[in-house]
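A further point concerns the way the authors explain their paired sequence and structure data. An entry of this sort, consisting of the sequence and the corresponding backbone structure tokens, reads as follows:
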Amino acid sequence: MGGSSSRDQTAETSNSTFFTEDEVRNLKSEYETGGMEKAKLLIQRKINDLENTELNIAVTGESGAGKSTFINAVRGLNKDDEGAAQTGTTEGTMEPTGYRHPTLPNVCLWDLPGMGTIKFPANKYLKQIKFEKYDFFIIISGCRFTENDVKLAKEIKRLEKNFYFVRSKIDNDLHAMRMEGGDFNEEEELEKIRNYCNRNLQEAGIQSPRIFLISSIDLNRYDFNLLNKALEGDLPSIKKSIYILSLPNLNLEIVERKKKELKKRVWMLASLSGVVGAVPVPGVSLGCDIAILIRGIIGFRKCMGLDDASLQRLATMAGKPVGDLKAVVNSPLVGKLTPVLMNRLAWGTTAIFISGLEIALDIIPVVGSIFGAGSSFLITYKLLTGALDDLTVNAKRVVTAAFGTD
């Protein structure tokens, strides 16, 4: 029983802070022996990992399968936006082409040429594409998965990479069926398509294929959310967090998942503030680092899609005037962030500083106890937590105004 509890606590610590058990012990040891600068370096290194770790997503399939449209959709871009992948080209992708995420440039989606073309025949394709570069593969088909798709999947599996089959253009298929007239049941038709894809792949030698039915025109429908959850479940901690934060705000669930990921970063920024100006509780000083606060809130704001560029992209995706989305945003944190504003918020926080100590230490697993006695830590923690709550509320208002749905 005791061993299980210890494992649970370790898992919670790792999941909540991105630190391994060894890193937590090292951090505590450095701090307790007076090595605040070393502790600061350990935390800063982990923050840098979160900001700079690359996530490379490979998207492949035959020409015309909808790869470019999918790549644009998951980045929240319209085909005419700057940086959008070209759609509707007849020659298809001739070289692996990377498309950076508009707000998280360390996330890159790669449009890979289809296997079996003149330039990339099947027997050379596997050697020419650098598989080790990509974190996982999405194999897209607009109709049925081909022999080349299966060959590719088997090679990816051999190299111990994850792959997912995406059947695109589902909205087109269902529209055509409706136009034929007669009885039409969307759920039954979707199940038929899913079963057909499953049978097609199993007959070709892929056991238990993971298949997701997608419309890149309307990601809120069909299996896009299921695809996201499958990807998240397979990615390691930091890359999972990066992937979640890269998603467009299509629904309230995505906003809530983003909040959960960003909450894990709050204590690290607060701890960084704590080691910069650690002050014991009796002094209750506003020793928090204003630059850390501003940096954190700007990052939260972008991830929550509340900067001007993100609001414009979401408005275009939803087919709404951007003014309608901006009209529901009500927060001083979406404007210019200044030291004066941060200090005003901080002084308001001191009124509940002491009473919040026990609660804060309860919420922050293990590592919080390292800096929990410092007012700089607690004030920064409470300010960033309040800012994240505020931005989440506003992001949800924007999503509701854009899509009018959960």
